Amino acid sequence: MPAAKKVRWAQLRVGVMAIVAMTILAVLIWLFTGQTSLWERYANIYSYMRDSAALADGAPVRLNGILVGSVKGVELTRSTDPNRVVRVVMKVNSNRLSEIPVDSIAGIAAENVLGTKYINIAKGRKPQTVQPEGELPSEASAEIEDLVKKGFGLFDSVQAILNRLDKIVSQVESGQGTIGKFLIDDEFYNRLVATVAEFQKVTVAISSGKGTVGKLLYDEGLYNDARASLQRLDAVIQELQQGQGTAGKLLKDPALYDETRASIAEFRKILDDLNAGKGTAGKLLKDETVHKQIESVLSKLDTTLDRLNSGQGTMGQLMVNPQLYDSIKGMTEELHSLLADIHKNPKKFLRIKMGLF
Q1: Is pLDDT larger for residue 237 or for residue 88?
Q2: Which among 68, 134, 153, 349 has most CB atoms closer than 10 A?
Q3: What distance separates the 2 farthest-apart alpha carbons in the chain?
């Protein structure tokens, strides 16, 4: 019997030690992984919302992004107010209550599309702070599910683009289009190789100084000619700067500058006189009487030309009447024949004169 008691006592001590060890392990795990501390005091504050947006118990509560507590509970109310359907109980560090004004706004947020929801309190400005068992106003939260639904259209667009890219890649792989022929067509490849070979020949010819381009790059004589031309151009510029030659005097001679300025002044004076109607040219430009006279003369000249074109008068008949033209032409020919006879046999016409006298 004493031995049995010792065994039971030993078993009891082992069980007690195991329970103590498990308790210590649980406390350590809770201390390392929990968000609250045994030595900190917490107070409950509340916020009412339209929807919990899948907010879970134990979710973090942050004040402008800084952790101040956790969600103690999310529960339904029996209120008929649509903005107070869900009550969120927040367990906040009592030391942090003095940093939360009463006009602060609580809202549900998420770190990313698939992240865990949490309560984020936007700090207000009023000097009064929230008290334990107090209430914070809330704001409508954008549902992650709604954002995902809105992203479906974007996903469809991306899928359509990927399908088009796949079609293009298939066409290229089958040798269709310019890029496909470039990758697949042997003839195009051979032509490209031949073109590259010709280009290499041209490059070799240029490098050896052949052709116009090669001479431009490698001919010393052409380089010397270009250098001499530049030297002559530099000499001309120096002469201009020194005032030599006509162009140099135009640039440097003050007397020529003064004469040019005087000529420009006289030309301006002539223009002023013309604008003022002085002189013959000025009257032609400004005098209405001269203008009317010129216009009258031009009108008469136009009338005379019309009469000539219509065959009126002697000059008009000469221009229009072919019979008068032929008669004058015949008379001219006879006169010419008569003058020729007089020139050949002047005695014949002198005898006639003598006979008359």
Answers
A1: 88
A2: 68
A3: 212
